[in-house]
Amino acid sequence: MKIGNFTKSYLNFRLPAEWENHEATWLGWPHNKNDWPGKMTPIPWVYGEIVKRISEGEKVRVIVESVSHKEKAIHVMKSIGVNFDNIEFFIFPTNRGWMRDSSPAFIKDDINVALVNFKFNAWAKYSNFKKDEKLPAFISKKLSLERVIPIYNKKHVVLEGGSIDSNGSGTLMTTEECLLDQKNQVRNPAFGKLDYESIFKQYLGVNNVLWLGKGIAGDDTHGHIDDLCRFVNKNTVVIAQEKNHSDENYNVLQENKERLQSMELHDGSKLNYVELPMPQPVIFKGQRLPASYANFYISNSSVLVPTFNDPNDRVALGIISELFPDRRTIGIHSVDLVWGLGTIHCLTHEQPSTY
Questions:
Q1: Level-2 CATH architecture, domain 2-352
Q2: Does residue 135 surpass a pLDDT of 90?
Q3: How far apart are CA 307 and CA 311, in angstroms?
């Protein structure tokens, strides 16, 4: 483990793009019923379908609570025909299963993969995270990967994977609402844009940060980028857009699109964008849920896209399939899943390969 500054051997490390080759995907098998109160029964079956699709092109490393929890996962996977050749289980007790945020940020150079252990504090909102914050150290030990603790102004930096998105070539995208708000769900008190940009450069190899404004309605993370706008190649993003002028997302998403129109990449070239529709509002027990097609996950062999029994499901799948012609685009039914306030991207975390 290293604390603070990288040694010279780490100067060429970078945060890869999600579409680069993976060694594996990490996923935590569901166990916390409080994440899906009253809807827990179908959730393992949705997870099973996600595991099945990802494992067709790479390893899936599944975190389970215990031997009995592992047996439950195996039962589901066997029932839906998962090929276990690409499945690895790790017993590690967690509070919740949102691997995108509690897992480390994996960085790489041309030879090695290492991990950056940002501090996880459950989105500065929930108290149940003491087990989850130990996950990066567990992964580091199990896989013998170097672990770096990012320190800035003598503090362990708080950051979740869902708050950033990388093109793998020096540009990173995030939101002001998530990282800069000093009143609600404050991650790093008194941090400004320059502070974050310094951190991203030092620990993630990023020299260009694109700042959008606010995230979508219903997002309990307070503005994660992965429900809003995602890189699909080095110079192109998809941006969620709402056509209904009376919807609470309309003005927010329009404002973000306007920002994109003037943004540039690390080399000074123009950022391209493709509009991605929003589904109609998904409401359960009177609560607006963060349903968004932008919460897709790019695996080695496929792109898994959340769907919501909505007419725009087909439209979104068509747009994404054209952007990833070398992968299959697969819809994953997520009406139940989104009751946990996240979907496919929130549940997964890629581990890049060394090539």
A1: 5-stranded Propeller (3.75)
A2: yes
A3: 10
